[in-house]
Amino acid sequence: MSKYKIAWMPGDGVGNDVMDAAKIVLDAMEFDAQYILADIGWEFWCTEGDPLPQRTIDILKETDCALFGAITSKPRDEAHEELAPELKDKGLVYFSPIVKLRQLFNLHTNLRPCKAYPGNPLNYRDDIDLVVFRENTEGMYGGVEFFPLPESVYDALCENPKMKKWKEVGLENVALSTRIMSKGGCTSICTQAFDYAKTHGRNSVTLLEKPNVLRETGGLMTRIFRDVAKNYEGIEAWEANIDAIMMWLVKNPQDYDVLVAENMFGDISSDLAAGLVGGLGFASAANIGDEYAVFEPTHGSAPKYAGKHVVNPIAMLLTVKLMFDWLGEDEHAANLESAVADVIAEGKVGTYDVKGRGNGNSTLEVAEEVARKVKALATA
Ligand code: IPM
Ligand code: MG
What we know:
By secondary structure, this protein is an alpha/beta fold. 43% of the residues lie in helices and 16% in strands. The two termini are 27 Å apart.
């Protein structure tokens, strides 16, 4: 019996390439786990009408956690177009499987570290070390949306007099997405951000919001952030409007530490933060719940590179490091991060995004180099 059972979900496109890289490193580390392949992604939408089949959910339920490569998502009409002929016109609607997984397993926290590893030529500055805490199940990702707008929904929203003007436009011309946030959701994400700051010796936590316009949701989050902050003496609590912080993060990223945001603002800011430390090829992520977690790098499936083994596996390898953290495998986590940092610092082996087009090593060569280093560290 292995110590861990891990759901193995390459997903779409380069998800497969980077998971191949993860396997090389996990095997080199002799990590005591059994990997259970689980179907997810575009292929299963096209052939079965469901990108997250029930059999995959069943596998997840009997594993400790999941490693996930990447996913392809397309807008509604394109998604319908690519369905197998016999599935067309059955009223099937595409919904992102990663968003569904976050909700189904209540993976309420998205942890996205963005650190400038020394020697990475793509660093915007060398002193950036940000950690984004993104609320992962609420806000604009709740999926409560309408088009056209039903009369009953319109009527209910007329509780607020500002709604009335939309009737003149014709409800058939109105689309509605919602941003629903709970006290519980806001409290949880703020508390985790401050807890992390405390346990990792961080100086500040910055809230990314827009309470001057989004008065109710942004207001709730801001009040809760202030309340939570009171319990963490010595950690500075800063507040920034989401637009302004995009500018400040580019101007003075070294001033920031832990960032906390609701779902959409966290989505946007974590891509910006990734861009400061080398781009999506370096950005790791963890979707964490109370009992289960799905580890998936921030990057997407990059279909044009699929199967070519050219994309950077570092984001995936640092994502495996987050999995080790979550499992309490601290030594593995430390060794893997050191190995990755060494490979970056030496700069001998790197993919095209680092070395320039035509000069890059393959995804697997980078993984093998990390594997060599991590083995040496484990036996040292
Ligand atoms: C991310 C991605 C997803 C999101 C997409 C693929 C649905 O951008 O994990 O940041 O928006 O959350
Ligand atoms: Mg995103």
